[in-house]
Structure prediction request, 201 residues.
Amino acid sequence: MNTMKVDLSQKNRIQIFPGEQFVATGDIILSTLLGSCVAACLYDPVNLVVGMNHFLLANYRYPRKMSLIAAEAGRYGVHAMELLINEMLNKGAKRRHLKAKAFGGGNILNVTNNSSKFCCVGNINARFIQEFLDNERIPLVASDLGGELGRVIHFFSSDFKVHVRKVQKNITSDVICKERNFWKKSIKENQAKPAEIVLWD
Prediction:
């Protein structure tokens, strides 16, 4: 992780938005703006495959003690991580070589009223990504999680470094609005889906 200024003008750069992911094998920069959301930066240093996602756990209820992976809230994160890992494997990565860096999960609302349930999302996302990577035995070699500010991150495929810049409060408020809308939309879409039916032979 590095906080120094970087030149982004001479590189192929892809911007990742909430709910998105991107996997690449060439020389590229993957960038995103994070508030409560988390971005997992995965890479295979042997086969030179990199990937990044941008997700949050969209649910009205979050378990305090039980595993997030096993909980209803955790399935959003599990799905996001599985999509990213599977796409990387399709691009030539090997699961045993995967390493991770994780960022985001900021507590950026600074409120005491928990009526919307959104204000705890940052903590939950940070907790989830650490639990998921530990469960999958993917080493977390660097992280910058929590805090009260948003982050802009740039993930370089050339050396797997991630450059982090904390954003000012006026920018963070815009991030809060966008992430809250994404969170509510994700919950609404999930509630509209018919229940899955499992058939047993």
